[in-house]
Amino acid sequence: MPEGIGGETFRAMSKHVPPPPGAMPVVRWGTEEGLREISGGAATFTLTRRTFFQYYRSVDHLLDTFFQYFSPAVRAREAVGEAGYPALRHDLGDVFTRLNRATDGTAQIASEYLEVIATKG
């Protein structure tokens, strides 16, 4: 979804590694308009906003996990190299710190997604 952690994460990374020319934003999957565009208008949609929570030992643990397992972050780190990695990590850390709901030094991040049921017809 364009708002929330997904959109904010991709916006923060794109400051360091812009998307390829002509690439459509991946968060368009999280909007009805984007889904209509992707489907060419060949489907109707039932959309439900959902939330799940991610829990980490700390924001630093979240960042370590993110840069190890989340493919777009892994690729962004590779693209910026060791010289650009501290700034990339800092900007993503700012996003995660701002969205962190925990108050005890751990990290609890709400992740919203759009549940989509598409009916062709």
Give an overview in words.
This protein has helices at residues 4-14, 32-39, 59-69, 71-99; strands at 43-56, 107-120. The protein is α+β, with helices and mostly antiparallel strands. The protein has one domain. It has a two-stranded antiparallel ribbon with strand order 1-2. Helix 1 packs across helix 4 (71-99) and helix 3 (59-69) runs antiparallel to helix 4. The longest helix has 29 residues, at 71-99. 12% of the residues are buried.
Keywords:
two-stranded antiparallel ribbon; 121 residues; alpha+beta; 2 strands
Q: What is shown here, in short?
A:
This protein is of the alpha+beta class and about 120 residues long.
Provide the low-confidence segments as ranges. Answer: none
General shape? flat
**Termini separation:** 25 Å
SSE ordering: HHEHHE
Question: What Rg is obtained from the alpha carbons, in whole angstroms?
Answer: 16 Å
- Strand pairing plus helix content: what structural class? alpha+beta
Question: What characterizes the major β-sheet?
Answer: 2 strands, antiparallel
- Helix tally? 4
Percent range for β-strand residues: 15-25%
What strand line-up does the widest sheet have?
A: 1-2
Q: Average pLDDT, to the nearest integer?
A: 90
Q: What's the domain count?
A: 1
User: What is the β-strand count?
Assistant: 2
The share of residues in helices is 40-55%
